[in-house]
Design goal:
By secondary structure, the protein is mainly α. The chain has one domain. The protein contains 5 helices and no strands. It starts with a helix and ends in a 7-residue tail after the last helix. 28% of the residues are buried. Keywords: Membrane, Transmembrane, Transmembrane helix.
Amino acid sequence: MSSQEITGGVMGSRYKQDRWYWPTFGNIADAEQASNQGVWAAAFCAVVTAVVATISLLSSHSVMGINSLAYVDAVLLVIIAWRIRRRSRVFAVIGLALFVAEKIFQFATQPQAYFGILMAVALLFCFINGVRGTFAYHRMLAAKAQEPAVANA
């Protein structure tokens, strides 16, 4: 193995990212991996939202400002995760925008939400990487399609 493969070159980068919070894109697999961060962030937010909405529904009062209407949000996040998984640039941007809007609203209305700022920052990076990954994926796919086909001799 070459040192490039071990330290994150073309082959090694698929398996080892030097920085999870701001990955580099050397190939389509790197873009897919970064895009998947957006998938997992949306799925995580959907599960947490659904759990808190269920607790709110069972306890008959709002929990952390979340009530049973949050199921709509959870469903939206599941759809966003699914579409990011299909490498949709539009849904990656929508997921990021929804997350940012919800966090601004949450921090403005729920003072105790500031305790979750580190988790929010980590998820924000995941959503940003989801956007970056989906755009890089499509850019690399288009570049690959433009490459002249090598004839087998």
